[in-house]
Amino acid sequence: MASELFDLSGKVAIVTGGNGGIGLGMARGLAEAGADIAIVGRNEAKSNAAVDDIRQCGGKAISVVADVTDKAAVVTMAGLVARELGRIDILVNNAGINIRKPPHVLDIEEWDSVIKTNLTSAFLCSQAVYPAMKAAGGGKIINIGSMMSIFGVSFTPAYAASKGGIVQFTRSCACAWAADNIQANAVLPGWIDTDLTKRARVEIDGLHDRVLARTPAARWGAIGDFVGIAVFLASSASDFVTGTAIPIDGGYSIMG
What we know:
With about 260 residues, this protein is of the alpha/beta class. It is built from nine helices and seven strands. A seven-stranded parallel β-sheet has the order 3-2-1-4-5-6-7, with helices on both faces.
C-alpha cells in the first residue's frame, strides 16, 4: 500500500537545530509519520519546548544539548541517542546561522563561525551516525541547503559558500554510502517565514516585496511546507532517490 511507503514507525530521527523554524517543522512531520525524534541544539530551554510540542502530537521525543561543531560532542550525542532511543535511522542536518555582510568587511572569525555551524556540523553528524545506519542496514540523511546553494548575493558570502558546500557534500555521501543502503539528499529552502528571515526583512530594504514579486506561488513559505519533503526523504518512498538537491521555494528558483 502507498501509505506504508511513508510509514516511519519504529524509526529514530535526529534533527539538529530542530527546536525552531524549518527544523521543527520537519521534526513534527517525522513524528506524525511515526518516528521517534531527538532534537539536538545548544538552547536547552528551546529544545525542551520543541520536545513538548512533538509529544503533544503523540510522538516520542528527547532533547540533547550539544555543540554540533565539536567532534567529541557530536560523537557523544550520537551515542546517547542510540542508547536512549535504540537506533539511528534518519539524520536531518539543519543547524545553521547567517551573518549578513559583504565579503570585504566579513571577519575571518565570522566566516569560520558560519562555515563550522552550517557545513562542518553536517560532516561531523553524518560521520557520527554512519556506523549505526550501516549496522541497521540503511539510513536517510537530509541536509538543509538554501537558495544560496545555487544563487549568489552580495551580503552572504560565508552562508552561500557553506550552502553550496552542503550540496556537494550531499553528493559525496550519496556516492560513498550507496552500497550501505544510505540515501543522502539536500533540501533547498526558498524564502521561508522564520525568525531568521524576519530579521532579514528588517536588515534588507524591500526584501519582502522582491520575494513576492519573484515567487510564482506569490507567498513566503511556511515551516509546514517542509513536512511532506521530510517524510518523503526519510521514508522508503525515496529509496531510489539519492544525491539530489530539491528546491522547496514556491517556484522562486525557476522564475525568469
